[in-house]
Structure formats: structure tokens, C-alpha cells
Amino acid sequence: MRINQHELAVKVSLIEGQKISISIAQIKEVLKIVFIELSLMEEATVLETLRYHKQKLLELED
Hints:
With 62 residues, the chain is mainly alpha-helical. It is built from 3 helices and no strands. The protein has helices at 5-16, 24-39, 43-61. Helix 1 (5-16) packs across helix 2 (24-39). The radius of gyration is 13 Å and the shape is globular.
């Protein structure tokens, strides 16, 4: 299943909206660039990075 980029952009805007004002279109453009860069990386590296950030989030919730 693919990531819904619009939904992800909305989530980012809600989180970051407390700090600075960024439009959904700007966030989607940044996400597009991030996804392109991620696609050029080794899958294991991307997965390791995602796991790292997930662990950090879980630690914050404790």
C-alpha cells in the first residue's frame, strides 16, 4: 500500500503549524523531494532510519 502524500502533508502541517506557517502545497513539494532522495538510498538504510525515529517517538510517549 502506498503512503497518501496529501494526508501526510496535512499531518505535518498540523504538527509544524504551531511553529511556522507552511502551506500543504509546500509540504507536498518537500515530501516529493524527500521521497525521491529516499528512493535513491539502500532500503536497509531507510528502514533503519525509520526504526530509529519510531523508537524515539515511543520513548517520548513513555
